[in-house]
Amino acid sequence: MPAELQREVDTEFGGLDGLLLAAAHRWYTALHAHLDAVLEQHPAHLPTAVAELWRALERTHPACRALLDAHGDRPVLATVEARQRRMLLDTTGVDLHAMHRTQVA
Predict the structure, then answer these.
(1) Which long-range contacts (CB under 8 A, 24 or more apart) does 29-35 make?
(2) According to the model, what pLDDT value does residue 74 have?
(3) Reduced to 3 states, what is the DSSP secondary structure of residue 84?
(4) At what angle do helices 16-40 and 3-13 cross, to 10 degrees?
(5) Which parts of the chain sit beneath pLDDT 70?
(6) Which residue range forms the structural domain that includes residue 12?
(7) 88/84 Cα distance (integer angstroms)
(8) What pLDDT sits at residue 105?
(9) How many structural domains does the chain have?
(10) pTM score, two decimals?
(11) First-to-final CA distance of the chain
């Protein structure tokens, strides 16, 4: 990351991890908001509907998703991803990790 950008990230977010947490918060807030609408429609195949929602969010928030994917190996994101995965799996039965892995592949 260029030094000037690093200074801005440090000032605004306290470092890269803070930026990644903010991006993850934005992503999952959008996912949950739209997921509510999907669930209200009672789709015949929920995993397909969630996968379609994920792809739609990738189109509307490409920079956010790219940032999260590029830094997915950072421990701070692993914690967030694990929590979100458990929450979605418990709520809907959809495995976010398996679904996202097939989207990226």
Answers:
(1) 30/57, 30/60, 30/61, 31/57, 31/84, 35/88, 35/92
(2) 94
(3) helix
(4) 60
(5) 99-105
(6) 3-104
(7) 6
(8) 46
(9) 1
(10) 0.83
(11) 26
